[in-house]
Structure formats: structure tokens, C-alpha cells
Amino acid sequence: MLQQTTDPGFGEKYANQTKRIINKDGSFNVVRKGGNFTSRDFYLFLINTSWPKFLGLMLLFYMLINLIFASIYFLAGIEHLANLPPDNKYLSVYFFSVQTFTTVGYGNISPQGIPANIVASFEAMSGWLFFALATGLLYGRFSRPSARILFSRNMIITPAEPWPKLMFRIVNQRSNMLMEMEGRMILVLADRSNNQHNRKYYALKLEIPNIVFFPMNWTMVHVINEESPLYGKTPEDLRRQEAEILIHIKGFDDTFSQVLHTRYSYRHEELVWNARFRRAYETDEYGNIIMHLDEIHNHEPVPETELVGSV
């Protein structure tokens, strides 16, 4: 009887069929509803969102704030703005708002009287706060640790003596040095008994669970022996049980002196049977090791003459 591992945090009992647990981008396939959205949540959203969304939101806020202040100048009376051109008044007031907000102050248009000066004072202070927050967000995005670990597109099962092996490869896409790497694999199988859709979790023991240095690719291997929860499984068994293999990688970033984490998963349809990986590195004439990052996906079928067994 195989021993299940502790629920890693995704729950076990479900009423209906579920999608994959971990998406290809490493995010969890969980939609959170309810709860109160706070300013702290918005800060975390801006820190974690993509660069195009972040820059787009910053530009949107910048334009919106200046539109609001330009409208306030109109409400306060544009006659309080000296040297305002007679044509395109709203556009001129908007650009005056931009110059005040950024504290540029070219001097072509200037506020006259108490109402306009009060608005300009509040706008200048708002500009300081906006750029202080934007600077903090930029620093947070650049300084937070993040991993760019490339996973092979497929996980493969290679026939070998005395037991077949389940394996996949990873490589660091950045030039920073990672070390003290650790890896974990968890097999998730669906159990549809009693009209329910439950999950069962099994730890997959790695042949080499950790390495000291990570300058090249790392092939992570699980031996499918009699102690493995995959022993005796066929592709049809894994499809029927909606098998998914969860991956957790942890390492130390020598550049930022921080620990990095990354996640990934392989579904049963992403397993390639009776295959082996091709070598993704070579040496040049000077003895340098050349690592081809885009070749870690390459694999080839094992010839029938070399097949020594099946899972």
C-alpha cells in the first residue's frame, strides 16, 4: 500500500472535476473571491503585475490626475491663470497642470489669486507624492527576487536498467549565479470513488534532490521502482486518474543574497514515453562549455532495440 503524502495546500475533496493545479506561468489555478480589497493589495498587484500593465497603469494615473486638476482649474475660473492663450484653452490648462504636477514650471502660464494658487499648491504636493510612490514601486519591482528557470516542455519516461526513469530538465535563463538548488516532485492523482472528485498526493523521490552549483542544466530524475507510486502505471491509467506532477524548485541567488522559489507542473498529456533527452551543451575548440538554453526541450525516441522494459 502506497503511503500518501500530506496535502501540500490544494485540498483533497472536490465535488467536480478540476483543472490543472499549477499553470504554465507558475501561478496557482485558484480564483479568490470575497474579502476586502485594501491599498496593500493594490500595492502588491502593482509589484507583481507585468511590466506592460504596470507602465500602462502609471501612464493612465498620470493623465487622469492631470485631467482632474485641469478641470478643477476651470471650476475655480481660468481667469485666474495669467497669460492663458485664447485658443485651445482646455489643452493649455491641461499642460499647465502637467507642468505644475511635475514641478517643471516653465512660467508661460502662472496662477493669479488665492483660488488658483491653492489648487496649484495641492497639485504640486500631489505630484511629489505620486513620483515618490512611483519611485518606490519601481525600486520594489527591480529589487524583489525573481527566478527565470526554464523547464523542458515535456517530462519524459526513459527505459533503463533495472528500472525506468521519469525525468525533466531545468536551466537558469539569467546570467546570475544560482547555487544550493533543491527540488521536490509531488504526484497528484484523482479519485472519483463515491461520486466525488478527490485528490491524492504522493511524494516522488528524486535520484538527486539537490545540487551545489547551477551553471548548466539540471536533469531531475525519479526512478520508477516498486516503491514508486508510478510503478505499473500505463498512459491510460494516468489519463484516467488525471495525473499531474507538481514541481517546486528552491535556490540561493548569489547576486541578491536571497532565496528564490519557482513552481511548475506537468500534466499526463505532457509526458513522453520511451524517450530520452539530447545533450544540450558542448565544448568548443578552446575547451569552453557552451550551454544551449533553447535545446533543453530536445528529446528523441528510444530505438526499439534498446527498450528494456516499460513502466
TrEMBL record:
SUPFAM superfamilies: E set domains, Voltage-gated potassium channels. The keyword RNA-binding does not apply. The chain crosses the membrane at residues 54-78, 90-109, 115-139. InterPro entries: Ig_E-set (IPR014756), IRK_C (IPR041647), K_chnl_dom (IPR013099), K_chnl_inward-rec_Kir (IPR016449), K_chnl_inward-rec_Kir_cyto (IPR013518). It holds the Pfam family Ion_trans_2. GO terms for biological process: potassium ion import across plasma membrane; regulation of monoatomic ion transmembrane transport. GO terms for molecular function: inward rectifier potassium channel activity. Keywords: Ion channel, Ion transport, Membrane, Potassium, Potassium transport, Transmembrane, Transmembrane helix, Transport, Voltage-gated channel. The keyword Transmembrane helix applies. GO terms for cellular component: monoatomic ion channel complex; plasma membrane. Residues 149-303 form the Inward rectifier potassium channel C-terminal domain. Signal peptide: none annotated. Residues 65-138 form the Potassium channel domain. It comes from the Bacteria. It is a multi-pass membrane protein. It is found in: Membrane. PANTHER family: INWARD RECTIFIER POTASSIUM CHANNEL (PTHR11767), INWARDLY RECTIFYING POTASSIUM CHANNEL 1, ISOFORM F (PTHR11767:SF102). This is Potassium transporter. It comes from Adhaeribacter arboris. The lineage of its organism: Bacteria, Pseudomonadati, Bacteroidota, Cytophagia, Cytophagales.
